[in-house]
Design a protein that fits this description.
Length: 393
C-alpha cells in the first residue's frame, strides 16, 4: 500500500479534549499508527504569540496557527471570519514547507468553513492534490452558505458521520459515489473497565450517598426529559440520584440554568451537577452508574448526530435509556443494549429507567451486549482502517 501523506485543516479548540477534538485527533492518530504521515493544522482566530507553534502529540505532527495580527476581536461573526482569512497566508507557507519534504497527497478539512475547507480548496487548486472533507455536524448550514456549498462540490471525497448527513448531501445534489460513512469511535483504552480499580469506583459511588445512580455525560443541550421524568423515578426509588457531567457554551443552557430548574421543581436533593470534567476522569463516573441516559429531542440537529457519549457508555458496559431519534436508533438496539423511548413522553423514559434500576441482571446483560457491539464496531483503529481503504482506492 502506498503511504498516505496527509494534512488536516481544522479549527478545534485544543483545550477541549472531547467532541470535535476527539474525532479529529483519535481518527488521525490511529491512521498515523498504521504507518502514514499525518500533520494537523489547527487554525484559530485569536491572536497569539508566537503565531505558529509546532508540537508532537502521540503519532501526530500538530501545527497551531494564529493570525499574526487581528482587526477584530475574533470571538464570533464577521470578526472571526476575517481573522481566519488572515491565517491563510501562514497556512499556505507552512503547507509548502511540508509538501517539499513529504509530497503531500491529501488535504483533509474537518467541516466546511473559512478556517478549514476554504484553505483546503486553495491548496487543492495550487498543488493538484485531493481534497477530503469530513462532514460531522449538521450545524454547518448556519455558517457561510457559499463556503459550505462550494466545499461539498469541490471535495473529491466526503466522509459523512451518519447516514442522515449522507442523505442530506444527496438531496442537495452531491454525487453519492464520493460520500462514505465513517462514524464516531471511542477510546477503548480509556473507557475500559478492566483498567480501573473496583474499590475506587465503589468509593466514588458511595460518595453520592445514593442506592441508585443515573448518569448523563455531555453537552447540556436539553435536559428537560431527564428532569421531567425524575419525579416518577424518585417516587419509585427514593434513594436515586441523577449525576450530570458537562456544561454548555450557551449561557441559556449552562449548568447553572439547569440547576435552577431542578431546584424550582424541588428535585435539588436528587441531582448532582458536576460541570465539565477532564475527559480522562469521565470513565470513573460512568463505571459508577447503574444506568446511563441520553435525551436528544426529535429535531434535525440531534437526529443527525452520532453521539460519542453513547459509545463511551457502551464501552463501560452500561445499559442505556435514550430517545428514539434517527441516528441514536442506529446505535442502540432497543431491548438489547437498553431502551429507546419517545422523546415527547417523560413517563416512558422514567418507566424504562425504573425497569433497569430494578434488575441488576437486566443491567448486566444489556451492558455486556452493548459493550461487545461498541468494541467491535466503533474502535478507532477499525475506523482508521476503513478510512485508509477509502483513501487508497
Amino acid at each position: 500500500m502506498i503511504g498516505i501523506n496527509l494534512v488536516v485543516l481544522c479549527n478545534v479548540d485544543l483545550s477541549q479534549k472531547w467532541g470535535d477534538y476527539t474525532r479529529v485527533f483519535s481518527l488521525m492518530n490511529s491512521l498515523a499508527k498504521r504507518g502514514h504521515n499525518i500533520s494537523i493544522f489547527v487554525i484559530r482566530p485569536e491572536k497569539k504569540y508566537p503565531a505558529i507553534v509546532s508540537i508532537k502529540e502521540n503519532f501526530l505532527n500538530v501545527v497551531e496557527i494564529h493570525p499574526r495580527f487581528t482587526i477584530f476581536s475574533g470571538k464570533r461573526g464577521i470578526g472571526k471570519y476575517v481573522n481566519y482569512l488572515l491565517c491563510i497566508p501562514i497556512i499556505l507557507k507552512e503547507f509548502s514547507l511540508l509538501h517539499k519534504k513529504d509530497k503531500i497527497n491529501f488535504v483533509y478539512s474537518y467541516m466546511p468553513g473559512i478556517g478549514s475547507s476554504l484553505p483546503a480548496m486553495i491548496l487543492k487548486l495550487r498543488y493538484g492534490i485531493k481534497h477530503v472533507l469530513d462532514f460531522a455536524d449538521l450545524h454547518v448550514f448556519v455558517r457561510p452558505k457559499i463556503i459550505a456549498d462550494r466545499s461539498f462540490k469541490n471535495a473529491d471525497i466526503i466522509i459523512a458521520i451518519t447516514n442522515y448527513l449522507r442523505n442530506d448531501l444527496v438531496n442537495r445534489g452531491i454525487d453519492p459515489k464520493k460520500i462514505h460513512i465513517i462514524p464516531n469511535g471511542v477510546n477503548l483504552e480509556l473507557f475500559n473497565p478492566d483498567n480501573y480499580n473496583l474499590s475506587e469506583i465503589e468509593k466514588l459511588r458511595k460518595s453520592f450517598d445514593a442506592d441508585k445512580l443515573v448518569v448523563f455525560s455531555g453537552a447540556l443541550q436539553d435536559l428537560n426529559l431527564i428532569i421531567d421524568s425524575a419525579p416518577q423515578v424518585i417516587q419509585n426509588m427514593p434513594k436515586t440520584k441523577f449525576v450530570i457531567l458537562g456544561d454548555h457554551r450557551n449561557p441559556a443552557k449552562s449548568k447553572s440554568i439547569w440547576e435552577k430548574k431542578v431546584n424550582e421543581k424541588g428535585l435539588g436533593d436528587h441531582f448532582v451537577f458536576l460541570g465539565r470534567k477532564p475527559h480522562e476522569e469521565i470513565p470513573r463516573y460512568l463505571l459508577s452508574a447503574d444506568v446511563c441516559v441520553d435525551c436528544f429531542p426529535d429535531e434535525p440537529y440531534y437526529a443527525a448526530a452520532h453521539p460519542i457519549k453513547l459509545l463511551e457508555y457502551g464501552a463501560c458496559g452500561k445499559p442505556v435509556v435514550a430517545t428514539k431519534v434517527e441516528e441514536t436508533n442506529r446505535i442502540i438496539k432497543n431491548e438489547i443494549y437498553g431502551f429507546l423511548v419517545d422523546p415527547k413522553i417523560p413517563v416512558e423514559f422514567s418507566m424504562r429507567i425504573i425497569e433497569l434500576l430494578g434488575s441488576k441482571d437486566l443491567c448486566k446483560t444489556m451492558g455486556e451486549n452493548f459493550a461487545n457491539y461498541v468494541k467491535t464496531n466503533f474502535n478507532w483503529n477499525k475506523l482508521a482502517s476503513d478510512l485508509e481503504k477509502i483513501l487508497s482506492e
